[in-house]
Amino acid sequence: MAFYWSFGTVLILLAITAPAALIFGFGGAVAARSSVLPLRWFGRSYIAIVRGVPDIAFFLFFVIALDQGFEWIRHQVLCPDWDQPIRQGNDFVVCQAAKLPLGSAPQWVHEIYGFAIAVLTFAIVFGAFAANVLFGAMRAVPKAQVETAAAYGMTRRQTFRQIVVPQMWVYALPGLGNLWMVLIKATPLLFLLGVEDIVYWARELGGAKTPRFTDYPHGDWRLWYFLALLVFYLAFTRVSEIFLERLMKRLTRGQATMGGTV
Amino acid sequence: MSCWDTIQAYGLRSIGIGERLLPRDDFTLCQQFTLIGSGMLWNIYFGILALVAGFFLANAVALAKASASPILSKPANLFILVFRGSPLFIQFFLAYFLFLNLKQSTGTFSWLTNAAAGALVVLFLNTAAYSAEIFYGALRSVPRGEVEAADAYGLTGWSKFRRVVWPTTLRLAWPAYTNEAIFLFHATTLVFFAGFPAWQQRGDALYYASYFADKTFNPFVPYPILAMYFILLTLVIISIFGLINRRLNRHLPQEARRRLRFRPQIIR
């Protein structure tokens, strides 16, 4: 049963991460083209660093880093009179009250917390990719449009809100669609973040069972479980591909681009 | 132990030369640098071999996909769909258990369950599928005029392909192929996290980085080291591919050359 639920886990992850990554991406893109220098540097380096390093390294990094970051902040707030250092040799020690989740919390809180950290990690990493796509899309909006807006006396902010943002989506869609496919294909990495997802259950359930431990003894079925996962992902990406194609056709209707032939 | 001793002890640890036991406590910065760097040997090994072998298969598959006969194009389409449509992570798992089953039932393929061979096969097929799609796109955008000119000169068959179509394809595909290469090197980090066991703790760079992060519970040292190594590797790849790109475009006037753009990609 848990195996079937884990498909739901993947779908929930996708449903939460996609908008979250889009928000991160939008923020990153706006920061990268901001006129304030430090903000621009921040946006640009966020995009550059996340894209230059293998993402799986980021997944492994952020899970611990975020966890420790949260605990450190709670530690500072909740236990101001703690006098021992936090890093003691190879240990990371915070006071009991700052533990996240609390040691006394029930099991489901731990699971939700792990899942939330995973979602945040995905959103940060994919936010950088989305930021890059949106950054490109904002620059692809025809310059004449922006100049016309300026000629009508619109402020920078008005231009951005009313001219650039509504138009950039068409330019961003191919990139975002691509990103969506990549996001789907990145979901099995949840397994590495310690969430009990489909990969975990496929390994668990597929492993050889003997009559001593279960009612349904079978040999090593992991091959077949993973084959099922492969088919699931193939079907999923194929369906999204068809859907994105339709969406693109609809959005580009009447646009003066290569895709928008009448 | 001085840093030089550490390098001697762990520099080739990832391929089984040197100290047998990994450091257990009192981790120094030098140890982390050395071991993670030594793990990079595996990433480079997987990357280069898969890339070189995949290049040839990719060309073949791209040609098959572009061919008019469905006997050739159907299997090529299926191959590309399967390897591009599913996560590499799942492919690794599936391949590992497939090889395990083969080993148990036939007993002849035992070498494939080894990461060095088995993961290489998966990476090879995977990069071949991704590059085939790139080459196929380039093949379709070879200018019609060039092909007609070749016809006019009386070139046919193999010599037309070899002298006119293929060089242009390669030239058009090269920028995208550079990204694919970078992407492939990044993907090699998945090997030891997906099924394939690291025998005697001989792992790749990420394997050692996560080892240190687990042991010290401090991710802020090993992962940035790993990132630094990968950025260096990416720069090396870009410069090598840039040289090849220059050679491919050497007959064109300076301003007509397509510049390589650094657009490293995402996970697969």
TrEMBL record, chain A:
Q: Where is the ABC transmembrane type-1 domain?
A: 7-244
Transport is among the record's keywords: yes
* Keyword hit for Transcription regulation: no
Q: How does it sit in the membrane?
A: Multi-pass membrane protein
Q: Which domain of life is it from?
A: Bacteria
Question: What is a single cellular component term in the Gene Ontology annotation?
Answer: plasma membrane
Q: Which UniProt keywords apply?
A: Membrane, Transmembrane, Transmembrane helix, Transport
Q: Which residue ranges does UniProt annotate as crossing the membrane?
A: 6-32, 44-66, 112-135, 163-183, 223-244
GO BP terms, alphabetized: transmembrane transport
**Compartments where located:** Cell membrane
Name of a matching Pfam family:
BPD_transp_1
InterPro entries in the record, alphabetically? ABC_transp_permease_HisMQ (IPR051613), MetI-like (IPR000515), MetI-like_sf (IPR035906)
As for family, the record states: Belongs to the binding-protein-dependent transport system permease family.
Which PANTHER family does this chain map to?
ARGININE ABC TRANSPORTER PERMEASE PROTEIN ARTQ (PTHR30133:SF2), CATIONIC AMINO ACID TRANSPORTER, MEMBRANE COMPONENT (PTHR30133)
Q: What is this protein called?
A: ABC transporter permease
To which species is this protein native? Litoreibacter roseus
Automatic annotation (TrEMBL), chain B:
**Domain of life (superkingdom):** Bacteria
Q: Cellular component GO terms, alphabetically?
A: ATP-binding cassette (ABC) transporter complex
Q: Which UniProt keywords apply?
A: Amino-acid transport, Cell membrane, Membrane, Transmembrane, Transmembrane helix, Transport
Give one Pfam family.
BPD_transp_1
Residue stretches spanning the membrane: 44-64, 76-99, 111-130, 181-200, 220-244
The signal sequence is none
Q: Which biological process terms from the Gene Ontology are attached to this UniProt entry? A: amino acid transport
| Annotated ranges, domain ABC transmembrane type-1 | 40-244
Report how it sits in the membrane: Multi-pass membrane protein
Q: Name one GO molecular function term.
A: transmembrane transporter activity
Chief subcellular location: membrane
Tell me if Nucleotide-binding is a UniProt keyword of this record: no
Entry's localization field: Cell inner membrane; Cell membrane
The record's similarity note reads: Belongs to the binding-protein-dependent transport system permease family. HisMQ subfamily.
The protein, known as: Amino acid ABC transporter permease
